[in-house]
TrEMBL record:
Keywords: Membrane, Transmembrane, Transmembrane helix
Transmembrane region(s): 30-48
Domain of life: Bacteria
Protein name: Uncharacterized protein
Source taxonomy: Bacteria, Pseudomonadati, Planctomycetota, Planctomycetia, Planctomycetia incertae sedis
Keyword Transmembrane helix set for record: yes
Amino acid sequence: MKLTLFGVRSLVFYATVVVAYVSAPYVNLFFLLLAFLTLHWILAFAWTSSSLRGLTAQVDELPAVVANTPARVAVRFHAERGRLFDVNATLLVQFPGQKRPLRASGGVAVLSGRAQSSLAVPALPRGVYPVFRAEVWSSYPFGLMKRILTLADAPTEVVVFPQPTSVTDASGGRTAEDFVRDMLGSNVSGDGDMQPSGLRDRREGDSLRSIHWRASARRGKLVVLEWEGGGGEGLEVVLDRRCSAAELEEALSDLSALVQFAREGKEVLAIRSQDLNMTFGEGHEPFDRALYFLASAQVIPMDGAAPPAVSPTVLRLPRRSLSA
């Protein structure tokens, strides 16, 4: 247990009363006040030390968060017996350059059985932030002391990926496909080496846009066009991190939009970069790994290694590379 700020102030007041009792002539008055405060502290210690007895808690995994956007993560409490009061949870996130970690907090006033709350994660810039500690605590009933338990079942880091470049412009009616087409340009297909490999029967979960309507009409049943890798229509992109910090941030925002587009369209996205050569989507790596890369990617020196060699038809980022 540890003292709260209110507890520290109360302890100073208690010490003042002790000094007054010893030195002042009004002994009876200060004796009664001192006896009351002493009983108050004894009850606070006994009550607060048992305020979390029988409590178990779990903080859910925190999915990747968009940069500069607040998020919430669920925390589940379970009181095995009786009622508990003023139960709180805090996620301490280490922020580079700051001595004190950021705090994401939430809780319940009265807990009987099972309950759920959420921790408010503050808006953070792009990056991967380690979770310093996850804890549950209570200062019930008087707020003088705080009983703290460290949670083992909690996220270990907060992944913050870049804000995607806007893929929808309400005024112009642009769609995600329009955005990709604008990035690719008229001379680049973007398919790279990920070409159609054949037709197969449509399965549950396949998107409508993957259906080959002419072949479906000929066969009398729905069939889809399957691309190399077996995960649907594919897009390939190369990210060359030999650039300025501003160019990298813009490229990562573009790539973040492409990841969002591919995930929602259930398509395959291949990303080639320095230290990364992976394909994401159904049957491949999960898109969460792509978001982790977007959160952690850093600029490399201009004389550093080049990204993997690919077909000339592949989309290249940053965008200045399109005209190169």
